[in-house]
Design goal:
Blueprint: E1 6-10, H1 14-23, E2 29-33, H2 59-68, H3 72-78, E3 82-85, E4 90-94, E5 97-98, E6 107-110, H4 113-125, E7 130-133, E8 140-143, E9 148-152, E10 158-160, E11 163-166, H5 174-180, E12 188-191, E13 196-203, E14 213-216, E15 225-232, E16 236-243, H6 253-261, H7 267-272, E17 282-284, E18 289-292, E19 304-306, E20 312-313, H8 321-338, H9 346-369, H10 385-400, H11 402-412, H12 424-430
Parallel strand pairs: 1-2, 1-11, 2-7, 4-14, 11-19
Antiparallel strand pairs: 3-6, 4-5, 8-9, 9-10, 12-18, 13-16, 13-17, 14-15, 15-16, 18-20
Helix pairs in contact: 1-4, 1-8, 2-8, 8-9, 10-11
Bound molecules: flavin-adenine dinucleotide.
């Protein structure tokens, strides 16, 4: 890019920060515009209300973050984050039993979302040419009819740009901005499992159970309630309870504990019943899978990219959003390299490539949500009977075979392709050969 080139990122959530990390490779100046006042310390802020909720990161996501910010895992650990082996340190239980535990290399550093975002923000801010403009809410895009030229904050204030990247999250106003400029808004696919998501933070007991992290899984069609206990910095536990299909966990003390007690296993209830609560119970709705199909629009202004939850937001129960944003960052880098750093053609190529990367995960996530859907909107097609048999048998084997369970966990963490669930050794086990 030329000496005067300027990239603007709207939104300083995790997706915006990861995008900015790539833009610094190609732009002289990168400005990140954020409506919130950005806190000096790792603290939740109003623009990301989900920061009070539990956030795990998939292994693939953590590995990409480490690639983008070498040493980040070490810094997080120094700040109190807890290194976690997703098989060795994690007790997974389902109504069918308990999954195997053994040491693995599926390790992440477990921390609050606020700490992770704050650490990444510090690393991005250290790059030359990067500027954060907080307490600035973008109201509209500026274009010259074919390409973007900037963003407008108010009737008197704007910022010029050669590239604009929208990272304003699930509730992005970009479709509205585009419409008001005469461009088509993207079609949306929404798949809503009506998940109620609640989290309360507790003091982590000094002598605790023999697991670091505990998951109690749902099982369709009868067990729609589930939960997690996971460790974060400052010796805290994040405890989240979930109910699929409009079964929202209550937010009062007795109701929250009662919901924990109603799970098929008493383990979460036992863990928290005498632990010291540090916060109220926070509740979050609006957890649907939502894909805004920018990849189908041929007429977007050149130089406009959409990133993170504003492009594709997953049901947060599966913990994939940060990893999807991290994949987007790698794809953005690849696109710039392919186009020799040019902006012309980038919009189309980027959205298409991102779509190719995320489509498989979208299909598997919406299929996992399928049993809980209460409307036909966006309903994914049923798996064919052969596949359905295969996955049912595979699911049974995950309880008894460490090899199958290990591969399955790698696939869930986006480390291995779903095709590895069909490799000969696993195929033979599933088919009893
Ligand atoms: C309840 C819940 C739990 C989750 N748990 C997990 C998890 O365990 N693991 C995981 O990987 N992901 C999880 N996610 C998803 C994860 O939070 C996001 O996918 C990820 O952080 C990327 O989000 P984002 O940056 O696209 O959007 P956001 O995090 O929503 O950030 C958008 C930013 O844009 C700013 N903004 C919005 N409009 C404007 C404007 N007009 N002008 C300026 N700034 C603006 C906002 O203030 C905000 O800072 C969860 C999400 C939810 C809702």
């Amino acid at each position: 890019m030329g000496y005067r080139s300027h990239g603007v990122v709207i939104g300083s959530g995790i997706a915006g920060l990861l995008a900015a990390r790539i833009l610094v490779n190609y732009f002289q100046r990168v400005t990140i515009v954020e409506r919130d006042k950005l806190p000096e310390q790792p603290k939740p802020r109003p623009g990301v209300p989900q920061a009070n909720q539990s956030h795990g990161i998939l292994v693939r996501g953590q590995r990409i973050l480490e690639q983008l910010f070498p040493g980040l895992g070490r810094e997080l650990t120094a700040a109190g984050a807890v290194p976690l082996d997703w098989i060795g340190d994690t007790l997974y239980g389902s109504p069918d039993g308990v999954y195997p535990r053994f040491p693995s290399d599926l390790i992440t550093t477990s921390c609050s979302r606020s700490l992770l975002e704050w650490m990444i923000r510090r690393r991005v801010a250290a790059y030359e040419g990067v500027e954060f403009r907080d307490q600035c809410q973008v109201q509209q895009l500026l274009t010259d009819g074919t390409k973007v030229t900037g963003v407008r904050f108010s009737s008197s204030e704007s910022l010029t740009a050669h590239l604009i990247l929208d990272a304003t999250g699930r509730n992005s106003s970009l479709p509205r901005w585009l419409k008001s400029l005469g461009y088509p808004a993207p079609q949306e696919t929404v798949v809503n499992a009506d998940l109620g998501y609640t989290t309360r933070w507790y003091q982590r007991p000094q002598s605790g159970p023999d697991w670091q992290q505990l998951f109690l899984l749902p099982k369709a069609p009868h067990y729609n309630r589930c939960g997690v206990v996971y460790p974060v910095e400052d010796n805290r536990w994040g405890v989240s309870l979930y109910g699929f299909g409009k079964d929202d966990p209550p937010t009062d003390e007795a109701g929250f504990l009662g919901f924990a007690r109603s799970l098929p296993s008493p383990l979460i209830y036992e863990a928290i019943k005498s632990a010291k609560p540090l916060t109220p119970v926070y509740s979050y709705r609006g957890t649907q899978n939502r894909w805004r199909h920018y990849e189908q629009l041929d007429q977007l202004p050149e130089g406009l990219l959409v990133f993170g939850d504003g492009f594709c937001a997953f049901n947060p129960y599966y913990g994939q959003g940060i990893t999807a944003a991290a994949e987007g960052a790698l794809i953005l880098d690849q696109c710039f390299q392919k186009l020799g750093g040019k902006i012309t053609g980038l919009t189309r190529v980027f959205h298409k490539k991102l779509t190719r990367r995320l489509t498989g995960y979208w299909l598997s996530t919406t299929l996992r949500d399928r049993p809980w859907l209460t409307t036909s909107e966006g309903r994914p097609r049923k798996m064919n009977p052969l596949m359905s048999f295969y996955f049912q048998r595979l699911g049974e084997l995950t309880l008894s075979s460490p090899e199958v369970y290990g591969t399955f966990t790698e696939v869930l963490h986006w480390v291995k392709s779903p095709m590895s669930l069909f490799r000969p050794r696993i195929l033979m086990k599933v088919l009893h050969l």
